[in-house]
Every structure is written in C-alpha cells, then in structure tokens.
C-alpha cells in the first residue's frame, strides 16, 4: 500500500524514482549536485506555463516569474506558493547559501539569492534537472481530466 503525504499525495518511492529519473536528475535532486551552468534545457526556455518538481510533479514556479539572470540556470523571482518549498541553510562548499527544497518530496532544486530584480530582489536559481515544464495547454488538459475523475 502506498503511503500518503500530509497534503494527500502519494509519497515518492525512492526505488521507483531511481528507475524513472535520468542519472543527472537523480544526482541533482537526491544527492544535491548542481548541473553545469548553461547546459540545462530550461536556462533559455521562456514558453508560457508552469514548472513542476521532476520527482513529485508539484507545481513550483510560473513562467511569468522566470527571468534571464545570465547565471546559466533557470531563474525565478518567486515561488508559485511559499508553502511548496522549504528554504534550508546550506554550508557546503565553504560558503553559506540558502538551499531550495521541494516541500512535498524533499528534492533538492537549487538555491535562492537576494540579488534578483525589484521589487522582491529574489533569484531562485534552479537546476533544470530538478524541474519539468508543463505548457498552459497541457496544464488545462490535466485540470479537465482531473475534474472528470
């Protein structure tokens, strides 16, 4: 029997996840690795839609909040809903940063910095390997399908 999380979603099974994710996605989300800059599929991606956690498919960022920070990773100035991520002090690599983690499944997403555009001044620097994109059309179709179930 699958265990449910507190928000009513099926918990992510690590064995299943390891078979479903690419090696890069696993390293980034489960081992807190960072993809090389300017290599991720979503760095220069600006289609309208929403970005989801690659592990649990929780919606995290809307395309309207994405901007080109020139840093080599997808950058967003805010999260779709604050309760969808956890911010964790990260003292790895001889520096202090704030890690961004999916609140539903604990996947490592990236880091947040206070050097983004006004007025929020936030730059959620997210690994492409930790997210998946759903277009406006795909999102609407999924919502229609869910309403029929």
From TrEMBL:
Enzyme category, top tier: oxidoreductase
Cofactor requirements of the protein: Zn(2+)
SUPFAM superfamilies reported for this sequence: Mss4-like
EC number annotated for this UniProt entry: 1.8.4.12
Keywords for this protein: Metal-binding, Oxidoreductase, Zinc
Note accompanying the cofactor annotation: Binds 1 zinc ion per subunit.
Residue ranges constituting the MsrB domain according to the UniProt record: 14-136
MF (Gene Ontology): metal ion binding; peptide-methionine (R)-S-oxide reductase activity
Keyword Ligase among record annotations: no
Record InterPro entries: Met_Sox_Rdtase_MsrB, Met_Sox_Rdtase_MsrB_dom, Mss4-like_sf
GO biological process: protein repair; response to oxidative stress
Catalytic reaction equation(s): L-methionyl-[protein] + [thioredoxin]-disulfide + H2O = L-methionyl-(R)-S-oxide-[protein] + [thioredoxin]-dithiol
GO cellular component: cytoplasm
Task of the protein: Methionine-sulfoxide reductase that specifically reduces methionine (R)-sulfoxide back to methionine. While in many cases methionine oxidation is the result of random oxidation following oxidative stress, methionine oxidation is also a post-translational modification that takes place on specific residues.
PANTHER family on file: METHIONINE SULFOXIDE REDUCTASE, METHIONINE-R-SULFOXIDE REDUCTASE B1
Family indicated by similarity: Belongs to the MsrB Met sulfoxide reductase family.
Record protein name field: Peptide-methionine (R)-S-oxide reductase
Annotated source species: Trichogramma brassicae
């Amino acid at each position: 029997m699958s265990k449910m999380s507190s928000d009513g979603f099926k918990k992510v099974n690590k064995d299943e996840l390891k078979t479903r994710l690419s090696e890069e996605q696993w390293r980034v989300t489960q081992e807190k690795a960072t993809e090389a800059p300017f290599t991720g599929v979503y760095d220069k991606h600006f289609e309208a839609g929403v970005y989801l956690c690659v592990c649990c498919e929780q919606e995290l960022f809307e395309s309207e909040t994405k901007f080109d920070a020139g840093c080599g990773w997808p950058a967003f100035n805010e999260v779709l809903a604050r309760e969808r991520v956890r911010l964790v002090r990260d003292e790895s690599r001889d520096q202090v940063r704030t890690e961004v983690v999916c609140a539903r499944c604990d996947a490592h997403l990236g880091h947040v910095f206070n050097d983004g555009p006004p007025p929020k001044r936030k730059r959620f620097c997210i690994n492409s390997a930790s997210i998946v994109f759903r277009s406006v059309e795909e999102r609407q179709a999924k919502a229609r399908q869910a309403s029929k179930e």
